[in-house]
Amino acid sequence: MDSKYCSIGLTNETKNGFKRKKPTASICVKKVKLLSDSISNCLQNGHEVSKNIETHVVKKNSDDLQEARRKLPVFMVRGRLLEEIRKNNTMIIIGETGSGKTTQIPQMIHEQRLEGTGLIVVTQPRRVAAITIALRVAAEMNTEVGNIVGYSVRFEDVTSPRTKVKYLTDGMLLREAILDPLLSKYSVIILDEAHERTVSTDILFGIVKLAQKERNEKTINPLKVIVMSATMDVDTFRNYFDSCPVIYLEGRTHPVTIYHSKTKQEDYQYAAVCTIFQLHTTTPADDDFLVFLTGQEEIEAVMYNIKQIAKETTGPPIRVCPLYAGLPPAQQMQVWKETPPGTRKIVLATNIAEASVTIPRIKCVIDTGVVKERSWCSATGAERLVVRSGSQAAGWQRAGRAGRTAPGAAYRLYTAQQFNTRPLHPTPEILRCPLAPTILLLIAAGVEPSTFPLIDSPPRDSVTASLTLLKELGAIDSVENPKLTVLGRKMSSFPIDPKYSKVLLSAPEYGCLEEALSLVAVLSSENIFYTPMHKREEALKVKRKFISPTGDHITLLNVFKAFCKATLKKQWCKENYLNHRNLTYAYEVRQQLLAICQRLNLTLSSCGSATDQLLKCLLSGLFSNCAWSRSAGVAGGGARYVTGAGGAASLHPAAALHAASPPPPALLYTELLHTRRTYMITVSAIQPHWLQQVAPDYARRCRAYR
DNA sequence: GAGCACTGC
Asked: In chain A, where does the domain assigned CATH 1.20.120.1080 lie?
């Protein structure tokens, strides 16, 4: 280990925090019961459950909790750790799973009152984590959540004037930074799970760095910054934070033995099925398997294969559980149900099982080594979904899922040599996503985008494309030296894509704010339709009653309106093949957006059945998402279109207008997705001359393509 | 006539 790093904790070979040493050696991953059983359940089941167990947790006898605390590795090095925190204003703490860093370090700081008159905040990339960790810490401190310990996530702020330790999502702290870029309420900011490199944490790194500097210069209360992470690219982080000290904490996990494929696998799905059955016949029936695959379709295919082969194979009975984010909650729950003794559980999961949820009792991980990744092309505005090789970090993370409860094994369906040539870390999200929302946020927080310190800077073209869009939306006054306009300031107060906040701010002009709020809420949420493979025909038949001849946007509005009117919503959703969770979420988003509109004194109005008004209003934000027909006379799905950026695109077969004949001359789409072809998703027909009326500047720029 | 990995405000 490099001598410039100090180390705290027990000594052994995993001290330096990297588990990438020997490809076939066992790695040290282990589980400390950070959370009581009820809380772990709620981690898995999501937020709804966490509310229900709150009382139970707070009342739990705190003796057990104190006992568990004292056993955590971080507790044993408490004195030295506090000394380092006292001495340094910025530091990096590398703590492996089970070190107790997230729950204990904020408490230790508070016990010593190192935060002074300010607050200690801890960011998390996921809301469920922010909530459950706050509950846990409140229980350990023998207080109710919302008192000394609180949390703040979207739609829910459980804090009070007495709160000194606050857990929140990184996105939430970022929104706070717009109103107060110096984050002056806080004296200690802990950025946890930094290795995940979400756009929000990457931006927060820069925000806290600038805040720290400015607070120093103005001699207002100093800011301590602690960056916490599991294994990560320490040198990159350390360079970024001006060579600050790095401290390593021991983790406590069970060893996981890694096996690599001896030869390259041509077909990882096939290899996965083979490996499953090889292990099935050679391992005890009570050992559960976790298989990492890329998506729903693949999971369904492998599940089918397993069931077919299982019929002709001897061996213990098998229960196969699919797990991906789009699966209805009730089916997701199957994963946590215990199987009868002598039955093997095989979980087929996407990346959701890599960090977001934890499945207990997994003994064997089968890692196909591939991930499905979304990326964005600034030139065409299209997003791409590609299956590609994962990083080494992802490989270790996946393997670690086998060592949560007991020693385990991980089978990699790629060679050790293939593993070693993979990138150490995944591409940070900020290099893969549209930048307009982030750039608007930065400008609103008073930051100069061109000099803002980022660990990884996106390509210049990408930044320029986003600045150009913001200029055309009217959010900033120039691309070269961007300053927020009055409209831009208003746009930045909405927690949504600036294209959509422009739609809401234009809505009073078109007399359709009621409808715009509903539509934007739905567009800002996940898919509201639930189409199970085996009942597709029926689902499509039921959908027909909502379909509008103008296209998908008004169809979505019709569904949302009907949902609001329905009395037994859950039942109604089931009957209509709709996703209750996502519709409820959209409903909550609408409430939040409405409150912001009221604060901005926007006139609430309805366009009734004059849906043209709503579509024109939508065009005021989505003008760059137009496409024009290039195939007069060709019927329906065969129609070819060309987008504003000049690329060819087709209507997605799931679009309401897919079969329209003749094909509409002009379209407005929500998303451009490149898979086998470039498809427009969520599409409505518009009048070609609307663009000239609604967004004349853009229309001029784009005329060449028409 | 195809299919959407995962978070978050």
From this structure: 435-590
Residues of chain A with CATH 3.40.50.300: 71-249, 256-430
- Cβ A332 to strand B below 7 Å: no
Cβ A654 to strand B below 7 Å: yes
The backbone region for A358, taken as left when phi is positive above 0, alpha when psi lies in -120 to 50, beta otherwise, is beta
Burial class (CB in 10 A: 0-12, 13-18, 19+), A389: middle
Q: How far is the CA of A154 from the C1' of B4 (A)?
A: 24
On chain B, which bases lie within 7 A of the protein's CB atoms? 1-9
Among A3, A25, A26, which residue's Cα sits nearest to residue A16? A3
Model confidence pLDDT, tens digit, residues A237-295? 899 999 999 998 887 778 899 999 999 988 899 999 999 999 999 999 989 999 999 98
Angstrom distance, A276 CA to B2 C1': 30
Whether the CB of A154 is less than 7 Å away from nucleic strand B comes out as yes
Fold of A256-430: Rossmann fold (3.40.50)
CATH numeric code, A71-249: 3.40.50.300
pLDDT digits (tens, 9 = 90+) for A3-21: 333 444 332 333 333 333 3
Q: How far is the CA of A169 from the C1' of B2 (A)?
A: 36
Nucleotide nearest the Cα atom of A682 (by C1'): B4
The DSSP annotation for A131-199 comes to HHHHHHHHHHTTS-TTSSEEEEETTEEE--TT--EEEEEHHHHHHHHHH-TT-TTEEEEEE-SGGG--H
CA separation for the pair A145, A537 (Å, rounded):
48
Sorted by sequence, the CB contacts under 8 Å of residue A619 that are 6+ apart come out as A626, A668, A686, A690, A691, A694, A695
In this complex, the nucleotide whose C1' atom is nearest to the CA atom of residue A355 is: B6
- At the second CATH level, the architecture of A435-590 is Up-down Bundle (1.20)
Residue A175: CB less than 7 A from any atom in strand B: yes
Question: What's the CA A296/C1' B4 distance, rounded, in angstroms?
Answer: 9
Question: Could you tell me if residue A183 is left (phi over 0), alpha (psi between -120 and 50 degrees) or otherwise beta?
Answer: left
Q: Which residue is nearest to nucleotide B5 (CA to C1')?
A: A372
**Which is nearest to A346 in space by CA: A404, A305, A297?**
A305
**Å between CA of A654 and C1' of B1:** 9
Tokens of A628: 């024009």
